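Allow me, if you will, to draw on your knowledge of protein folds for a short while. I have a record of one protein: its chain in single-letter code and its fold written as discrete structure tokens. The full record is reproduced below for your convenience:
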Amino acid sequence: MPRFALPLLIALSLAAPAAQAQEDVGPGLGAMLRGLDKINAQSSDLELATGETGLIGSLSVTLDDCRYPLDNPAGDAFAYLTIRDSRADDPSRPIFEGWMMASSPALNALDHFRYDIWVLNCVLPEGAMLPQDAPAEAEEPLPEAQGEEADRPVD
């Protein structure tokens, strides 16, 4: 029994950081995406509601889900996208299906010869910008400088 204790302890200690790395996320109402046509260098923004499909060039982009971190809603976005190319041999077959992260667009990117698409942010529900448990901050004026520092010019 003791010889199994050390491997078990090592396995549990390696699993602990993975559990701590997860963050609480909330569902967004939609997502803001940006597309780049690499041939003519034109970019365009596309706002999609969850379940909606839009076009960027010949690409049909469906937003299946968008999630954002509850502790920092403007800090990141995780969007599940299904992308099809109308000019492909089989236009019904997705050329991309998976999660894209706003903070790391290259982590799981669309591989297309002409277009790049990435997530900018989630469309947030009303009141999602402030954490519900955070106390309201009172705005206080900054103290005025006194003495020699007040007369010295600022660089």
